[in-house]
Predict the structure.
Amino acid sequence: MPPSDPKRARSKPPAAPWKPPSRARVLRVRDRLRDVYGIPLMRPHGHPIAELVLTVLSQSTNDRNRDVAFLRLRTRFPSWEAVRDAPVAEIEEAIRPGGISKVKSVRIQAILRAISDDPRRPISDRSPHGLSLDWLPRAPLLQARDYLVALPGVGRKTAACVLLFAYGLRDVPVDTHVSRVGARLHLLQGGAPLQRLHDQMLALTPPGQELELHVNLLRHGRRTCHARSPACSRCALARMCPSRALFR
């Protein structure tokens, strides 16, 4: 019998292809998160433009700095039309506490101008100043999502934030915490493109529980399942986590 090849002996077996989780597994994860964090309650606030601006301001900063920047912006300008039409330097100065204000100020005005000028919006829903997204909840969900992701700098996560938080529609934002925790639990496919992760997250989420699963996965990522040093020893999901052995 020929001697075995040392390189072949040391090689790792090919990784098993990712499979979507069963409904029973999703419900077990949901229930365990619910035991730890409860069921989040948040009524849709009905302000889609505010949600768009908030999401831009949240990039590369923490929630506190984001909120300070948003409050300064709303205090200095009486309307979104005023934000759209102001000199960009004034917007940049107002949102400076949120970080990278030079980039964010340009992006916010680009979004507001695109909403004003977009001919695809129903004529009946155009305000006298051209800034309105009141038609979104009455449109088919895919049409509303496609409209949002066509805005400058708006991707699936931002569109999902608007649809879910502003109107309570069926979409689930996948941020870095949700994607990390979801991949470690094998709910989501690790390393998949964001577009695919959003499709997977939406497919596995029970209807009506979009907000709960998003918020509780995010909370778990912030408090326990950290990027570099997850606290597996005190993790409520450790026994059902296929990735826990990687961090021992």
